[in-house]
Amino acid sequence: MCPTRTPTRQETHGRQGRSITDHDANEINRVEELSYDLKIQEVMTVKLQTVSPEMPLSKVLEILRIHRISGVPVIEDGQLIGILSLEDIVRAMEKNELSATVSQYMTQKLITVSSHDSIVRAIQTFTESRLGRLPVINEDNKLVGMITKGDITRGILTALQKDYKEEEVRKYRASHLFEDIISDRTTLVLRYNIKAHDFTRGGNASSHIKRALLRLGADPQIARRCGIAVYEAEMNLIIHTTNGGILKLEVESHRITMSTTDDGPGIADIAQVLQPGYSTATEQVREMGFGAGMGLVNIKRCVDKMEIESTVGKGTKLVMRIHIPTENFNGRKDG
Length: 335
Known about the structure:
Number of helices: 15
Strand order of the largest sheet: 6-7-8-10-9
Helix content: 40-55%
Order of helices and strands: HHHHHEEHHEHEEHHEHHEEHHHEE
Number of strands: 10
């Protein structure tokens, strides 16, 4: 077991500065959902203007003006060593020091985000740091882009526009799946193999599941509740398991069952891991922005029923259910 730590306000309270309540789980909107779906690499700026530490500030100011940007990364020998913003140049102008070099005014204490993270991670970092731009690094800690709040807004708007165009197609493909199949019990099963510590593909399975539910004609709010629950469960497999595990979705006309199974290390005290903020994630995982101890808490608030069975050294099984008591997958009342 790793020692517990005091979670940040953002980690404890989540989106919009508060924990997910039962009401919130039923009112999750598409913008919040996209914060989990979209990766930073999908919205970041990749064509970067860079400067060297020896460059005079007057020249950097001209670069900012021409390209209509408010900050640039500082590169030396191929490595990111700082960030210079328009605010830094303003400080130099107040002292009449535009002839000074970039190294004299750049910010050297860097706060970065990873290209494979969801944009919710960038939003959290913007909130906590109050910065206007963040360098984006890849798995090799190389600079691959920059992201601003404007990039996030544009990315979400583009995704929403794509959603709108695909809506009619989704409705068509979803039509009458369960009505047209005659059987005593019809179940659609989706199964995913999740690898331990595979943060690069973290969230892919939950994104596929949510998209499948929407195309089947599921109510969007139910699909979103499933999406967040499955995302948290998927990340738990990636963060905490020894060898990864299986993520499974079973869709019936009256309920959706989600489950994960793994072969270790198991949970010693289930009641303890259900406490908000308690986590056994390693410090390395926490530094990556994961393992805040809110996963199971958020799952419980998004589903109608959650069950955990676990044996230390053998593994864990997590079962989550959302009931669909009055409407079928096409949104019509059952007779």
